[in-house]
Specification:
Elements: E1 28-37, E2 40-50, E3 55-59, H1 66-73, E4 79-86, E5 89-90, H2 96-102, E6 104-107, H3 119-125, H4 130-133, H5 136-146, H6 148-152, H7 163-176, E7 181-185, H8 193-208, E8 213-216, H9 220-226, E9 229-234, E10 237-243, H10 244-249, H11 251-257
The protein binds adenosine-5'-triphosphate.
Length: 263
Amino acid sequence: MSAEQPRAVDRPSGGTSSLVAEKIAPLLHVNGLSAAYGNVTALWDVSFSVAEGQVVALLGSNGAGKTTTLRTLSGLLESTSGTVRFAGQDITHARSDQIVDLGIIHVPEGRQLWPRMSVQENLELGAYAARAKAQRAATLERVYSLFPRLKERRTQAAGTLSGGERQMCALGRGLMGLPRLLMLDEPSLGLAPRLVGEMFETLRVLRQQGLTVLLVEQNVHQALELADAAFVLETGRIVLSGPSAELLADERVRNAYLGVGVG
Ligand code: ATP
């Protein structure tokens, strides 16, 4: 019996597809993706995958195209070529609300909370898709147990929160959408070092809970220590990719992004 024909044992009866060798498809599969602002191309032929339960980091310096990648995946920017598949579906031309409904939740850079609304109202807005709305109360409790500080401040206007609390609130709002894939754009941006550490600790907890994350970060060292795999963009093209441990040891990464071995 070849490896292509698994034994038909230990399977419930009646399942025809169960006799086919299973190949675990990635949750997100991006192939040859390009995108442009007007006639200026910002992403060129970008291909990568994220498997269920993985944390994948998207690295690169300012203007490399990281945010553009997330915006294209979340349907805010139309791609000019390439395909995006999510959970087996072609979502290349899906609208942003359909993408949210499928469970791709984008937490944008700069938090973008509603400053006059309370913390809780901001969080609840994260659960606007039907799938998430049905479980809103239970998810809110989970977010509050992850971020007790947000629970303490739940009636306070989001605009009065500190930078670290705002970032927690933005992440919490993303979690309220019950993400199957959470895309985080620079969650540690502008935070004091202690708070950066706390943010990465939180991401570690979420990772242990099995959350799949695509993480844009300028904090390359911490991102690589957290992530399973990473890729590096330069002027809209992927120039390096691989398992995080390999990239941490890669001389080009160390020189360009980790400030090691220079001079
Ligand atoms: P940063 O960390 O600075 O946000 P980034 O890697 O996320 O960097 P992008 O914001 O994706 O980079 O930008 C990629 C390129 O697209 C840059 O050259 C940028 O100037 C350009 N760009 C980004 N947003 C727009 C826009 N709204 N209109 C025109 N060009 C844009």
